């Protein structure tokens, strides 16, 4: 007698069911991606802003502890590898000590902002940085800051916030040259009004904006106490 073997039909998905699932996944990805991109962009700005806030605090504390004038210098130059290859922007900053003999000493290495992030050079968004000086050679014929890439050190300009041993802060408001006297350099720094004592970090795509963009990191500094306050959307 012949025996018949019965095969059990296995469960599976039909083509329609698979296409439905793939379609649902695609819709979810389309909905989540913009929110995820916004989170990444906000995180990048937060990281840049927190870094600058910490170094402003470092400069103030160093001025008090060293009983010396200490600056935070904001370097402006053209970076051909950035999102703005033909436009000079504030891409880096550094903590610098001004010694009694007129020489300068770097307290920290330069801090470079992440790709896609700049410090605004618009006076409406960063009035503390509206005056910039050309960078001159320091003692020994060297520049304090050397930009990355093909940019020349002699083409770098900088804005500066100077902290004093009493904890106060002044901003650079007058241009000086390499031959300026100590008195001229001292008078180049003045106390800004509180409503114009801030800098704004934003995405490089908004670098030319004079209006506050939807995503930014603003740091306001009290000139008399050196304390910072952060504003975020």
Strand content: 25-35%
CATH fold call: minor pseudopilin epsh fold
Tell me the span between the first and last alpha carbons.
Answer: 84 Å
Q: Helix share of residues? A: 10-25%
Helix/strand-derived class?
alpha+beta
Backbone CA Rg: 26 Å
- Give the H and E element order: HEEEEEEEEHEEEE
CATH architecture group name: 3-Layer(bab) Sandwich
Shape: elongated
At the first level of CATH, the class is: Alpha Beta
What is the strand tally?
12
Mean pLDDT: 86
Please report the number of helical segments: 2
Give the count of structural domains. Answer: 1
Low-confidence stretches: none
Task: Tell me about this structure.
The chain has 233 residues and is α+β, with helices and mostly antiparallel strands. It has a single domain, classed as 3-Layer(bab) Sandwich (minor pseudopilin epsh fold). 25% of the residues lie in helices and 26% in strands. It contains two helices and twelve strands, in the order αββββββββαββββ. It has helices at 15-66, 182-187, and strands at residues 69-78, 88-98, 104-106, 111-112, 117-119, 133-134, 157-163, 169-172, 189-190, 198-203, 216-221, 228-231. The strands form two sheets. Strands 1, 2, 3, 4, 6, 7, 8 and 9 form an eight-stranded antiparallel β-sheet that branches. A four-stranded antiparallel β-sheet has the order 5-10-11-12, covered by helices on one side. The radius of gyration is 26 Å and the shape is elongated. The mean pLDDT is 86.
Brief write-up:
The chain has 233 residues and is of the alpha+beta class. 25% of the residues lie in helices and 26% in strands.
């Amino acid at each position: 007698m012949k025996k018949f073997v019965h095969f059990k039909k296995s469960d599976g998905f039909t083509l329609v069911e698979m296409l439905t699932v793939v379609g649902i996944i695609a819709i979810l990805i389309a909905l989540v991606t913009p929110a995820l991109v916004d989170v990444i962009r906000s995180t990048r700005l937060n990281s840049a802003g927190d870094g600058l806030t910490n170094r402003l605090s470092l400069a103030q504390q160093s001025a008090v502890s060293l009983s010396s004038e200490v600056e935070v210098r904001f370097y402006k130059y053209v970076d051909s590898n950035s999102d703005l290859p033909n436009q000079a922007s504030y891409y880096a900053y550094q903590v610098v000590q001004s010694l009694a003999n007129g020489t300068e000493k770097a307290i920290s290495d330069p801090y470079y902002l992440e790709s896609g992030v700049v410090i605004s050079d618009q006076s409406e968004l960063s009035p503390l940085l509206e005056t910039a000086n050309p960078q001159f050679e320091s003692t020994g014929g060297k520049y304090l800051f050397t930009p990355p890439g093909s940019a020349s050190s002699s083409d770098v300009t900088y804005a500066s916030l100077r902290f004093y041993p009493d904890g106060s802060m002044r901003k650079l408001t007058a241009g000086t040259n390499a031959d300026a006297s100590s008195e001229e350099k001292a008078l180049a720094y003045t106390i800004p009004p509180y409503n114009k004592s801030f800098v704004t970090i934003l995405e490089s795509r908004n670098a030319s904006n004079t209006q506050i963009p939807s995503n930014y990191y603003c740091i306001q500094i009290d000139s008399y106490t050196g304390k910072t306050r952060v504003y975020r959307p």
